[in-house]
Design goal:
The chain is of the alpha+beta class and 244 residues long. The protein has helices at residues 23-30, 70-81, 107-110, 116-119, 134-138, 220-243, and strands at residues 11-12, 51-57, 91-93, 97-99, 103-105, 122-123, 129-131, 160-162, 181-184, 195-196, 204-209, 212-213.
Amino acid sequence: MTHAFSLQTTIRHDGSHASGWGWLAGMATAALASLPGTADAGFVQPTGVSAYRLMFVTSGTRDAQDTSFAPYDLFATTQAALAGDLPSATWQAVVSVAVLGVGYVSAATHIACATCDATVPIFMVDGTQVATSTNAMFAGTFVTFPNQTQTGTVVPGGSYVWTGSNEDGTVARPLGDNEPTFGGVGIVGHIFNYGSSSKVNHYSFYAISDTIFVPEPATGLAVLGGGVAVTRVLRRRRAQRRAA
């Protein structure tokens, strides 16, 4: 994805303007790998849970002009693939979109997963917990604000992230609108809604997985059974050699 940043006026949540400089946050995100103290952490399996969702800030950036979820979800998927070590999952962008022919659809609706919304915790790729559930996240109850890329690189605080959403996951100014809503990484009370900016600007996205189930470890009996089977095969082969 090319980083064609636009010198458009950005309106932050406090009403202030950042004319001509909204591209700096996008540039900071694009240059994460070169920043000191932000080395890739790599994937760490969350502990103490049987199922979880992963969430990250995309290291790549793009615009917010599309009027369907598919391009944004595809972007989230391709960004996840860059890590190379994440578990197999379906990835979605945490965005509200003005869907052509349908209307406004919220981020909360888009990433909903039935019963898991209330029960499945969310983690970053290094095993740090974000929230106890999707519902808790959209209620503003974070364990840790999501601030890592798909490889575990720490994102500079205040970096812009396209969301189109309010803090509770409802529609603010959706993607596809002329000036969609963006959030600010690590900004208390403004994770999803920090301001609005021209849809042609390139910012990062929050990406989230569907439910990932932790593989059950092999039991002692299973390991013992496997050992017995191997022993039987070896004995059979020895007997066949002697008979020959």
